[in-house]
Design brief:
By secondary structure, this protein is α/β, with parallel strands linked by helices. The protein has helices at 17-28, 53-61, 65-70, 93-96, 107-121, 149-155, 223-229, 237-242, 283-300, 304-333, 337-353, 355-360, 363-366, 370-373; strands spanning 9-13, 32-36, 48-51, 72-74, 77-82, 87-92, 103-106, 124-126, 140-142, 161-173, 181-186, 189-196, 200-208, 219-221, 247-254, 266-268. The protein is globular and about 60 Å long. The N and C termini lie close together (8 Å). Bound molecules: flavin-adenine dinucleotide. Residues 9-134, 137-325 form the FAD-binding domain. Keywords: FAD, Flavoprotein, Monooxygenase, Oxidoreductase. InterPro entries: FAD-bd, FAD-dep_Monooxygenase_BioMet, FAD/NAD-bd_sf. Its cofactor is FAD.
Length: 375
């Protein structure tokens, strides 16, 4: 910490994971931070998040580890299963990287932890502030998500395209669940589920479809549509789906990673900079990484323009690589026919003879340490 940020005003648009984490990281380094959030209250839709070690290193460095631990579960493994429920491979995270922290958390709990930490550090949070015309600020940070005004001001208007996939999400009750994430892979569809603290279970179910759904996540749907789409699935899935009383559906759109992340006075992070399909579970994790690196770069250089350029150079290649990996996973989970049988057989074999090798494919994501890279 250099003290370079002491008393410097920073305005952040958006009080989601990216905006609140950036606010805490900047405030800890001395900045005077205001967060402008359009919602009348900081509230989150009901859904889960997987936090992987790359993001946990940042949350731990910000002193939030104990608060996160109190409201989340450890994730011991990722279990890939066929639609019938039979195991394809179980990736043992604990065994592969002892001590690396994978946590399963309800989004609302994460936002509460971040909001409380921001408020008690002295961040000013202004609710009900819908920022359409950008305020003139010496440093304006756009953490305003998928339809970011700050991104549009830097890059012009861009049009995302529908991926041909819609997804349902639901939370059900489940006491005493095994703390691992499970992915059930069927032709043209897959279902991800993991337990959350407080006796809950998160479900995300993705279906390839020609039907166009809105982008955004708060459209309620009839649970019968979810039941029908996954009627052929086995294992615990029918029991879980029978419990779903309320479900939301949304369309999955592809966006390019922003080509311009900053102009010396404005910068973007999180979904505003690199919206991703959810198939690597890294959207929020990347937002948390961004937040740390942005604050560290601003703290390290007296020249704001150079600091923001360094932030963009450090973050853009990694974000682009993770977004590409998520796009590839969308295809891998939904294989059909002979390609599906071959891919699952290869995974089963790999899991038996070289489980470390299967897991090591993602070391570049989980072993990354933003705190060590930019202290
Ligand atoms: C089903 C699903 C599962 C996911 N699972 C995972 C996972 O397991 N792990 C993971 O890391 N990520 C996951 N993600 C991704 C993750 O949720 C997002 O990447 C992350 O929430 C992005 O945070 P953000 O702060 O950039 O954007 P948001 O959370 O969208 O926050 C943006 C904020 O800006 C505010 N805002 C927007 N416009 C304005 C405006 N004009 N004025 C003022 N405020 C404004 C909004 O109200 C909002 O509060 C998942 C996403 C989905 C859809």
């Amino acid at each position: 910490m250099t003290g370079m940020l002491r008393s410097r005003p920073v305005t952040i648009v958006g009080g989601g994971v990216a905006g609140l984490t950036a606010a805490i990281a900047l405030r800890r380094r001395g900045a005077e931070v205001a967060v402008l959030e359009r919602a009348p209250a900081i509230a989150e839709v009901g859904a889960g998040l997987q936090l992987s070690p790359n993001a946990m290193r940042v949350l731990d460095a910000l002193g939030l580890g104990p608060a996160i631990d109190a409201v989340s579960l450890p994730s011991r493994a990722v279990r890939l299963r066929d639609a019938s429920g039979s195991d394809v491979v179980r990736l043992d995270m604990d065994g592969h990287r002892p001590g690396a922290r994978f946590r399963l958390i309800h989004r609302a709990r994460l936002i509460e932890v971040l909001e409380q930490a921001a408020a008690s550090a002295g961040v000013r949070i202004e609710l009900g502030r819908d920022i359409a015309a950008l305020p003139d600020a010496p440093l304006l940070i756009g953490a305003d998500g998928l339809h970011s005004h700050v991104r549009a001001s830097l890059n012009g208007r861009e049009v995302p395209f529908f991926t041909g996939q819609t997804a349902w999400r639901a939370v059900i009750d489940d006491e005493n669940a095994v703390p691992e994430a499970q992915v059930f892979m069927g032709p043209g569809r897959h279902l991800v589920s993991y337990p959350l603290a407080g006796g809950l279970r998160n479900i995300v179910a993705v279906l390839e479809t020609r039907e166009w759904q809105d982008e955004g996540w708060s459209r309620p749907d009839d649970p019968a549509n979810l039941h029908a789409a996954f009627a052929g699935f086995g294992g615990p899935v029918p029991g879980w789906l029978a419990q779903v009383k309320a479900v939301h559906v949304w369309g999955l759109f592809r966006h390019e990673v922003a080509s311009r992340w900053q102009d010396g006075r404005r910068a973007i992070l999180g979904d505003a900079a690199h919206p991703t399909l959810p198939f690597m579970a890294q959207g929020a994790c990347m937002a948390i990484e961004d937040a740390w690196t942005l604050a560290a770069c601003l703290d390290a250089a007296p020249d704001q323009q150079a600091a923001l350029a360094r932030y963009e150079n450090l973050r853009k290649p990694r974000a682009a690589k993770i977004v590409a990996a998520a796009n590839a996973n969308a295809r891998n989970y939904h294989l059909t026919g002979a390609r599906r049988l071959a891919a699952h057989a290869a995974l089963r074999l790999g899991g038996r003879i070289a489980p470390g090798a299967v897991l090591s494919r993602f070391d570049w994501i989980y072993d990354f340490d933003p705190v060590a890279e930019t202290p």
